[in-house]
Amino acid sequence: MMAENSVDPNSKHQRSPESCLDRISQLPDHLIEHILSFLPTQDAVATSILSKRWYPFWTKLPVLHLQDSTRCETRRQTRVKFKQFVSRVLLLNEAASLHKFRLDCRPIYEPKCFNTWVCSAINKGVREIDISISTTPKHRFLKLPSRFFQAETLRFLKLSGGVLIDIPGESSVSFPSLKTLHLLYVNIANDESLGKLFSGCFVLETLLLKTDYHENTLDIKLCSPTLKSLSINLRFAEFKLEINAPVLEYLELEESYHQVSFIGNLSSLIEANIHINYGISLNQLIRVLYNVKLLSLASYCYSEPVPHGYAYPLFLNLVQLEILIGLPGWDVLSHLLTLSHNLQTLVVENNSTIDSRWTEPEYVPTCVSSRLTTVSFKVFQGLQSEMQAVEYILKNAKVLEIMQICTLDMSQDSKSFVRNRLSEFQWGSKTCQVAIQ
């Protein structure tokens, strides 16, 4: 006999419609709006058909992600529908302000249409803008309107692809709240436009600039008293670059620069990644990088005569150095070891098949004899200069704990040869472990 409140597992019970409601629909309105903000706007709008309660949610979203399709390029009707959709979304949006406006499209829309979309977002007090224009053979770019450069609430700006930055002489730039700026492979009309853009970012802290080709040679003068992080990659482009950023903490320079110069020192710099091709001298690098703790350097820099009586600053804060040995050889590494008294970790990569001469320091550097604990040789080829460098460090590094040698397509016989040579070397550290990979 069953208890009074027990349930027969074989019996069929019909649930009321209320009990079948999904869990998301039972959430408060503000949580549903938050969830929808992670979806592309087209998908968020599509949820309006679920019920009357769901209909208004998409009109209150503070995050808009608008993206066209490949069919917009070939089908006029699809293109017209996308234009109407974007215009309707911006017109009916009731959010107090926009947190983020993201637009991914092709440069196939009329400038008036594009300008209206962008200005609508700015007029709604948008905080973040991410515009990516996919270039096509027939259409290269879309020009940003003058109103765009007067966004007082903007904090984050990312421009990618076929975006044209052309700021006429009579126009001004004012981004009083902008802290992060990313310019990725955009079109820059001239020096003046880029200079105006930088000068109008009054509180800028992070700048990322990448480009792979430019028709004109640009003279970039970057002066920012607030900039803390700077990453620049100008591949295959002819630029002159002048940097004046007294509170900079992170610096990344990559690829080819025809001329790089620094105004003042970088006493606040903590980390630097410098991979450039003959655009700067070693003396100049040492003068501006001396305060770093972490340094990655491709030694394509050239040497120049040192003025009589000039003393290089010491790298007293440097604890980790990663260096790429190029055609100039090992001189740069030898020099930096002498200046870096507190270096603990050293990573060396030799990408040159030319067996340049290992340059032994005039005296054993302080870091080698009493600080260096970890050394790694990457892309090790077994060249004579590499073996000499390994021998020097093993002999003089008295507190060395581990040395890693990562070989490049080296046969087992060659690895055995390297091991035999290492066993013949004098080791200054009794606890050092050597791993050949």
From TrEMBL:
<dbReference type="InterPro" id="IPR032675">
    <property type="entry name" value="LRR_dom_sf"/>
</dbReference>
<dbReference type="Pfam" id="PF08387">
    <property type="entry name" value="FBD"/>
</dbReference>
<dbReference type="InterPro" id="IPR006566">
    <property type="entry name" value="FBD"/>
</dbReference>
<dbReference type="InterPro" id="IPR055411">
    <property type="entry name" value="LRR_FXL15/At3g58940/PEG3-like"/>
</dbReference>
<protein>
    <submittedName>
        <fullName>F-box/FBD/LRR-repeat protein At4g26340-like isoform X1</fullName>
    </submittedName>
</protein>
<dbReference type="InterPro" id="IPR036047">
    <property type="entry name" value="F-box-like_dom_sf"/>
</dbReference>
<feature type="domain" description="F-box">
    <location>
        <begin position="21"/>
        <end position="55"/>
    </location>
</feature>
<dbReference type="Pfam" id="PF24758">
    <property type="entry name" value="LRR_At5g56370"/>
</dbReference>
<dbReference type="InterPro" id="IPR050232">
    <property type="entry name" value="FBL13/AtMIF1-like"/>
</dbReference>
<dbReference type="InterPro" id="IPR053781">
    <property type="entry name" value="F-box_AtFBL13-like"/>
</dbReference>
<dbReference type="InterPro" id="IPR001810">
    <property type="entry name" value="F-box_dom"/>
</dbReference>
<dbReference type="Pfam" id="PF00646">
    <property type="entry name" value="F-box"/>
</dbReference>
